[in-house]
Write a structure and sequence with these properties.
- By secondary structure, this protein is α+β, with helices and mostly antiparallel strands.
- Helices cover 19% and strands 31% of the residues.
Length: 353
Amino acid sequence: MNEDYYKILGVDKSASKSDIKKAFHKLAHKYHPDKKGGDEAMFKKASEAYSVLSDEKKKAEYDTYGRIFEGDAGAGQGFGGFGFSGFSQQGGNVEFDLGDLFGGMFGGGRPRTKRGNDISIDIELTFKEAIFGVSRKISLTKNSVCEDCDGSGAKIGSEMITCSSCNGNGQVHETKRSVLGTFSTVKTCETCSGKGQVPREKCKTCVGQGVRKKQTEISLNIPAGINNGEMIRLSGAGEAIFGGVSGDLYIKIHVASNKNFRKEGINLITDLNIKLSDALLGAEYNIDTLEGKLKLKIPAGVTFGETLRIKGKGVPDGSSRRGDIMIKLKIQLPSKLNKKVRKLVGELQKEGV
């Protein structure tokens, strides 16, 4: 979504977690579709805004990039399917069941999948690499899934046994009391990371962790026409975590400048200095491009600042089409004239040129 999450909840960027929670609490009561006069669209917007701003990592990413990257785990999904069927008020004591709207606010509700840390790196590109795209191999030292146990944490051939902490359910239940009443919550079992089973014998390579720190090589295809400062996200290429999903890898692109060309959209712009006589009579110039030399015909009678176009030699747009090279002409006027030239220019002046 491109909407401002802070405006949706009616809070500013300095709002505390408590303020954000209270703002969502109020909007959820007002707009929940199970209530008379509810608004499902507004409830979804508020839910998505809360799911991002209540999570420190997602909030920091949103504040930095102004949006949540496509595919961000859990964004806008953490509040789907809630109902008020578990809502009751008896004798001033408010109770909510496991699937209640407010369970998620206090750590309950549906257990969240654990997620590994994201990694952020910077890459330098030449101007030509940014224009035409390039393949790169990146070496990172990070937590990766153990290749010996394939992430299970178990020794090869070892059987899996029922986790004693959760009796094989993968979840443990807790009951919390607060000023709003009693909340029944469910959490992922930390012993088995929600799997319900643990290995009888641990993998020696990762010591039962399912992940280990090692150097990993990642192939990256950088698309043609990428701009300086743009970010590429590789889903699942970040830190691995046992019992959860890997984080993402964010790659910030830095493009070196070029002495001849600058990029504007899918066009390449350059300046060309030509002699006054060539501007008047026309000429041919050899110009350097990113793909070698090209001959450019200067028509007679061009003016200062006029732009010539070389079609199809600009930036690829991801299809078979390419932008153009735009050449801005700058006519060089001589600073000194010898007698012969002064005489010729005088003749031109007489002719009204």
